[in-house]
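Tutorial handout. Part one gives the primary structure; part two gives the three-dimensional structure as tokens.
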Amino acid sequence: MKRRSLLQMIALGTAGAKIFGGAAPAFAQDGRSVTIAWPSDVPSWDPNQRFQPDAQPLFKSVFDQPIEQDAELNFVPSLFTEWELADDGLSLSFSIRDDVVFHDGTPMTMEDIRFTFYERVASGENLDIANTWRNLEDIEILSPTSGVFVFNAPTPTAPQWLAFMGSFVVPKAYMEEVGVEGFRERPIGTGPYKIVEYQMNSRIVFERHEEYWGEMPAIQRVTVNIVRDPSARVAAVQSGQAHLTINVPVREVERLGAMPQLEGEINPITRVILLQLRHDMAFDDQNVRLAVHHAINKQALSQAFYGGAAVPLSVVAPPGTPGYVEGFEFPYDLDRARELLAASGFSPDNPVRFTMATTNGHFPSDYDIARALVQMWGEVGIEVTLDVIEYARYFELNRGNQLPEATLYSWDNATGDPEIFTGYLLNPQMPFSAWKAEQPGDRVLELFAEPDYETRIAGYQQVNRDATEMGATMPLLQSVQTLVRDGGLNYRRYGNGWVLPASMSWS
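Part two.
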């Protein structure tokens, strides 16, 4: 299926661009400021509270993590200068820097580490990191700069999680002084920027933290305008009212990139576009699940919406990551889809019906992909109702086990580790999993406690293949990040899609 014919099939049209807020153009002027059009706000300014992938660059501007990743996604020191996971996975020893200060000038200490990862969780606060650190029994302080994470069960991915979502160090004394709500209103961290202005779902202004312990950012002032509509983000960067934006349609990246003052990029990243599935309702029938998967032409989706840059996937792991299964392919096969449906009594005259949730503008071409899927499924006797939801609504529905049979989603995993792909997608005890069945959930639970790296990875590769063959997961494409920027603005490109103001500079 060619790009043009697929676009015609789903009657895509380019939405009219909106005027961006009426603000004056954000020209570079003295080279010390940048304006960014960003698709979503943080869920709150408590960085331990809720996991949200697109919020990570915003959080990382204000807060630091114990372990960092470089542009090639290698784990490198940050607040931790060194760390070592025990062979049995039951402890992790570490040392911290002694020259880090929070935005209010107070030094970061071991007490802040213990408070962030142990005391807040132990107190019963409603935090997403409580799931991450559920095995943490204590953090023993051995000296002003050294300590040990002590686990009550093997926790082989502790280093990965110290560099991943939610693991931002917060100040114990300040949070206890102002309270959690006070902290969310006036957050401080140890990161490269301070927040000097915040209007929820509208505008964030950062100014450089002049006592920052790390590499000093070249940009002194960063304005982030929250612009949910992708066509409005396109208008903002085209008019010069923003210097950079992400997650716009590929056709707009190609058009804007041809302009002399702009650069357009389509970058594969460590995210997976997939259908997140329930195990019940219409999808209680494995024949239906597999028929739905066989009827998807993934190569056509990639060509139509990402210029062929998005790699079709058969397992929930991009090529080059540990959980990828080399040589395994789940085929596009309309005849097989019809056979499976017929075996369960369905046909075009008696279609199986279910609902699929999708966002519109959260990641590039999400709604267009959803409409294309509906058209593909209609060819074999599958009738689908689309339910368009806000990005934040997805998290609420998933935690409440209220998602429909299928949800089109872009699953983020900056580390590439298969636990944070398959493990969290299929672990029935996690609030992030829509699939709650015992299989392959029981095997996933075993892998969470497997301390040997090679055994763990081999186990996830097998689970990845089995999950696809039973219809527990439905991977579509390796996600890409579309980005348009002023040609004079430089930034560091990360393999996981982070766009960090601290890495930006003007030519």
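Part three, for discussion. The mean pLDDT is 92. The first strand starts at residue 33 and ends at 38.
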